[in-house]
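Before relying on records like the one below, remember that each one covers exactly one chain. Contacts with other chains, cofactors or solvent are not represented anywhere in the record.
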Amino acid sequence: MLIKEKDLNNIKQNKVTLVKNFFTLEKKYDFNLISDLIEQHEIMVKPRSDIGNFKDVFQMYKVSNHIHELKIFFDFFKKLFRYEIDSRDEVDLFFNFASQVGISHSDIEDVFIIALQGKVIYRVFNKNYKDYELNEGDLIYIPRNLQHKVLALTPRIVASIGFYGERIYNKNERKNS
């Protein structure tokens, strides 16, 4: 896992941050893995829209206890950025079987998104918009309540690590923020 000091400071300042080559995959994240998780652990999977076919985006909930590598990332971000404990904090997988464009939305939590398979663009809206392209092993941080949308250029799998609690800062960090 690699986060440069500049990227670390950007995240601490709640700026959208793209980290290319954040990590090298230890395991193969593919649709066989998705199938195995569903079969072996009975993990809940829901389509994210009313399309109801393979062109939809699917969300697999709470996978950190089933994929050790993702649990390590969850713990890493939680400790590094000192998030308050919130029972909703978790790692979810999002995947789609075909290229597609998601709807524009914002999340109520801070999210760290790690590309596990495929190529995807996250379009983030401020006054204008900016596109961030992610490939396997890349990371993007999107602060809570920031409007964005997903443009999956290929079938893809991403891990979304969400933190609902606030960050706990010490006095020195507050002065520097």
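The mean pLDDT is 90.
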